[in-house]
Structures are given as structure tokens and as C-alpha cells.
TrEMBL record:
<dbReference type="InterPro" id="IPR001647">
    <property type="entry name" value="HTH_TetR"/>
</dbReference>
<dbReference type="InterPro" id="IPR049488">
    <property type="entry name" value="TM_1030-like_C"/>
</dbReference>
<keyword id="KW-0238">DNA-binding</keyword>
<dbReference type="InterPro" id="IPR023772">
    <property type="entry name" value="DNA-bd_HTH_TetR-type_CS"/>
</dbReference>
<feature type="DNA-binding region" description="H-T-H motif">
    <location>
        <begin position="33"/>
        <end position="52"/>
    </location>
</feature>
<dbReference type="GO" id="GO:0003677">
    <property type="term" value="F:DNA binding"/>
</dbReference>
<feature type="domain" description="HTH tetR-type">
    <location>
        <begin position="10"/>
        <end position="70"/>
    </location>
</feature>
<dbReference type="InterPro" id="IPR050624">
    <property type="entry name" value="HTH-type_Tx_Regulator"/>
</dbReference>
<dbReference type="Pfam" id="PF00440">
    <property type="entry name" value="TetR_N"/>
</dbReference>
<dbReference type="InterPro" id="IPR009057">
    <property type="entry name" value="Homeodomain-like_sf"/>
</dbReference>
<dbReference type="Pfam" id="PF21256">
    <property type="entry name" value="TetR_C_5-like"/>
</dbReference>
<protein>
    <submittedName>
        <fullName>TetR/AcrR family transcriptional regulator</fullName>
    </submittedName>
</protein>
<dbReference type="InterPro" id="IPR036271">
    <property type="entry name" value="Tet_transcr_reg_TetR-rel_C_sf"/>
</dbReference>
């Protein structure tokens, strides 16, 4: 569907991507202006829609592109050798903060997509996120040491509980910071401290003391 765009020379493609990311990061989907994008990308509106068809397709493409960059960023920070699931979760949280601080506009696009997109786009955005999560998350839970688990705890159920926790925590912050995405990015250290507290509670319920 996007072959014409994908086959562009790299400099032109990056210029268009950067203009789109900047606009969607600053304004979200509904308020973003394709006029601003074409002005900053130095192309015509006809060319933009030739590549993407419409604003919706453009936004979904940019969201997927930013999610892919996020996963690429994770892979640049390989997890340490610890097989403790909670060590890995804390490390993953720290890596996420590093990536967000290094790539603020990419982070903002993803936040805008999950927090401010119209209802008709949310299912498609969630599908894109889930596909990447299914690809990436198994490596987080690979070779986990379950020897510290309580005898009464089923390791598979414990890992499922951890996943549900992560999804619930993400939902909490999406709801809390809806319409205040800039504050979320400013509060990442405070959020990380709270995240650690939640992890300690989970650890208490799963591990032998």
C-alpha cells in the first residue's frame, strides 16, 4: 500500500517522516494539519495523499513507524543476565525512560495515539501495538528463574498476572494524563518510583520470603 513512499530516496523520505512526526507529536491526530506537514516536508498535498491516500492512513503509518523505532530502541539496550522477572521488569522500565528521553517526539506520537485518537482508530492502533508486543515480549519472559516462587504459585499464572499488571498500569497512566501528555513525559521519574513500589507488592505475593 505504501510502496511508492517506501521507494523514495532516503533523504526525502526522512524529511516527510520528520515533518509528520513533529506535527502529530505536537497536535495529535485530530488537530494535526496536513498543510503544516507539506510545508515542513516541502512537498505538495497531492504528493502526500498519493503516498498515503488520506490523513487516517498517514497517521496509522506514522504510529506503526514510531512503534517500530521504539522496539529498535529496546534492542539497543539488551537486558542483563538476570533471570529474575522483577529485575527484568525494572530494567525494562529504565530502558523505556532512556528511550523516551532520547526520542521525545516519537514518545509523544505514541502517547497521542493511545490517549487522544478518535474511537474509530483505536482498534487499529491497538492491533499494531499488540502485534509488536507479541513479537517482543516473549524475550522478556524467556528463561525466567521460577525457583524463588512460592510452592503454591503456578509460574505460568504468575507471569500472566505480571502481564495483566503491566497493561493495567499503562491504562492507569493513560487515563490519568489524558490531555496532559507533556506532564506525563515530565513525570517519568515519579512514575518510575511508583512503578517500583507496585513491583515490590507483586514480588511479595509471588516470591518466598
Amino acid at each position: 500500500m505504501y510502496s511508492n513512499f517506501e521507494n523514495l530516496i532516503e533523504d526525502k523520505k526522512q524529511r516527510i517522516l520528520e515533518a509528520c512526526i513533529q506535527e502529530f507529536a505536537d497536535k495529535g491526530y485530530e488537530k494535526a494539519s496536513t498543510n503544516a506537514i507539506i510545508k515542513n516536508a516541502k512537498i505538495s498535498k497531492g504528493i502526500l495523499f498519493h503516498y498515503f491516500g488520506n490523513k487516517k492512513n498517514l497517521f496509522l503509518y506514522i504510529v506503526e513507524y514510531c512503534l517500530q523505532l521504539l522496539i529498535t530502541g529496546y534492542k539497543k539496550y539488551p537486558l542483563q543476565n538476570s533471570k529474575d522477572i522483577f529485575d527484568r521488569l525494572l530494567e525494562l522500565g529504565m530502558v523505556k525512560l532512556q528511550i523516551y528521553n532520547t526520542n521525545p517526539n516519537i514518545s509523544k506520537v505514541i502517547l497521542q495515539a493511545f490517549m487522544n485518537s478518535p474511537e474509530e482508530l483505536r482498534a487499529e492502533i491497538q492491533d499494531k501495538y499488540q502485534q509488536l508486543a507479541n513479537e517482543f515480549m516473549p524475550s522478556i519472559f524467556k528463561d525466567i528463574d521460577s525457583s524463588k516462587f512460592r510452592d503454591s504459585v503456578n509460574p505460568e499464572i504468575a507471569l500472566e498476572v505480571v502481564m495483566l499488571f503491566l497493561e493495567s498500569l499503562q491504562g492507569k497512566y493513560i487515563k490519568k494524563y489524558k490531555g496532559r501528555e507533556q506532564e506525563l513525559l515530565r513525570d517519568v521519574d515519579k512514575i518510575m518510583d511508583e512503578y517500583k513500589e507496585y513491583v515490590e507488592v507483586l514480588k511479595y505475593g509471588i516470591y518466598v520470603r
